Amino acid sequence: MARTADQIATFYIALGVIVNALAALSIWSTNIIFVDAFTPSTSSIRSSHSTRIHSSSLGDLLSGITGQAPASLDYPADVLDGTNIDPSKSNVDLQCAYKASRDGWSAINFHENVDGRGSALVVVLSKSGKKFGGYNPLGWDSTDDYGSSNAAFLWYDKGGSEAVRCPILSGGNAAIFDYATGGPNFGAADLVIGSPQAAVLGGFAGPDMEDTSITAGNLREGSSSAGGAYDVPNSWPVRGKFGVVEIEVYCNGNVKPTGSGGGFSLWPF
What we know:
This protein has 269 residues and is of the alpha+beta class. The protein contains 4 helices and 13 strands.
């Protein structure tokens, strides 16, 4: 029995050494990026690019293993190309409107920060170290209804800081479900973060629903049964239930929130 306990202790010590070594490697790789940035050779530029890829992927994996949210989720630069909140547009000031580890993990916290903010990008980091999310061109207003849009899409980081978009299927039907007690919900089940704890039926979910905190979803929990509303390939990174380490939502800072149910307006435009 004592021998078994010693073996378990040895295993966890070894695991700690491996994690620390990986963390050190991640920091070392990041330092190489800064060194290469000042080296004008083509080979150094290629080395810097590949190191950045390695460092980002390794950081995501470590965050998944440890459950520690990174300071910021770096999403692929091209994921918003051509959208309403494309950062290259002069009237777009992309800002992180919601960050779960900062603002709270309840669906109530989520809606307090994103409702009325217009189009948004959702970035999720799972406990398996995978980074993915969705683009909601309609925004959220806690309507307890769904909306259709041909512009909505899911996305995932396939490595190398390159995004793969998964477009809405023809017709764009039921692209976004906007539950007041739920988190981001793409399609009926394609990607659901923080599902409501009680059924939502046209804004009425039975008795005792005035206290929405009772039925608010927990954004630490997600699920994906992709393919119902979005064209998702086999390489989609999550299936079934999964745990969430961090979730961020990016909106246009020039959109002035007008409150739940009030839509949004560009400010000062």
